[in-house]
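Entry 14. Ran structure prediction on the chain below.
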Amino acid sequence: MTGISKSFGAVRAVRSGELRVRAGTVHALVGENGAGKSTMIKILAGAEQPDTGEVRVDGRRAAVGSTAGAIDLGVATVYQEPQLFPDLTVAENVFLGRELRRRGRVDWAAQNARVVELLELIGLPASYATSPVRELSIAERQQVSIAKALGGEARILVLDEPSAILTDAEIEVLFTVVRRLVATGVSVVYISHRLDELFTIASEVTVMRDGETVGSYAIEDLTVRRLVELMVGGVPVEATGRSDVPDAPPLLRLEGLSAGERLTDLDLAVRPGEVLTLYGLVGCGAAEVAEVVYGVRRPTAGRVLVDGEPVQPRSPRHARALGIGLVPPDRKLQGSFSFQSIAFNIAAGNLPLLSRAGVWVDRARERRVAREAIDRLSVKTPDERTAISAMSGGNAQKVVLARQLVERPRVLVLAEPTQGVDVGAKEEIHRIVRGIAEEGSAVLVVTTDLGEAIRLSDRLVVLRAGRAVADFGPGASQADVLAAAAGETAGAAA
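Output, structure tokens:
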């Protein structure tokens, strides 16, 4: 892939992307969130078309116009979460959409025989061919996803964060499968934030930063620390955090909190007026923290305290009653009614406040509250009747945030608060967040954006494999924070 560029509206996802992968090798592609990795892979997989640049396979220019076109070229992508139908068998999933036929009918015997060959290659029992996918573990489902890719005669296999949801033992199984594939001549593009594992599986690494390819390197010429430095560059992040947050009892405290398979025994405290950023790589357990605090997920152990009192949010409504607000990570799916107006979206989270007699929405008050929110957060819109779908990502995100601020929350949790917004909107949202803290709220920011974590934090806690591994004061070094998240011991933490 050479000379690749791609923009989404005002956001320049890739400026100058280059990727060269040799046959029969494992080639790692790394970079921070927003570096351009995902866009490069979507272009390779035919899911997006580049604005400039070209893709060549075996030296010949390849027109990857669609995902089907990529598959025809032998390019297959396996994503972090297995994309399989749980009620179909392994064989049915592997050949879904490209069934082997004989005399117009599906040739089940031929399909099952071919799947048995693929299962042997990836190390699963032959009996799994006729087993429903729902009976398999997550790791086994991922192996089936690889088998599905190989069933399409893949020559270039892209593994996107394959280890993020696996245990250490399951990762070893994955590596065994990858080595077997490489031995057969398959090229593997391996994307991972877990930098330490690259030194076990990859032979070359391409580093991206800010939409550009920094360079490609032989793995033996690198260390984790050097890789981190290449990813973050030499420009320090301008931090806005304070070291003089008033020394007051915590508004939010988490004690021994565990949830699901990713979060283990977390202790955390956020004081009034403080912005604490919780940073980690994909699958570190940070997302589970936000869900537990807002009542979306039940913890398996530990407790949540607000103002020193143990509480256990049973639902988002209960969390709101406790004075907890949440801006969810996925604005479109979890945070807004995109074809409804600004006023509707703000009112939707505050119906008890904006209703008359608990039945009718006070339309005049709804419009007034929406206009106040527009003014306070500097939302660029003609008026409160504008639909969210007609707004930029940054202004839509401000509306999602505004809904939580109608009744000022004592505790505000922001999960990926600037995901999918341009640089200007990001700075505005950061300014709003700092203002919320200065008004006395405890603010917990859960983010996988390293620059955001450092820029916003009065205190920064790094999560790795569900545990807090480092604690930094304001103005932390990008290299130290990323090194801690990636598995290397960081420098002195504050």
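The radius of gyration is 24 Å. Will compare against last week's run tomorrow.
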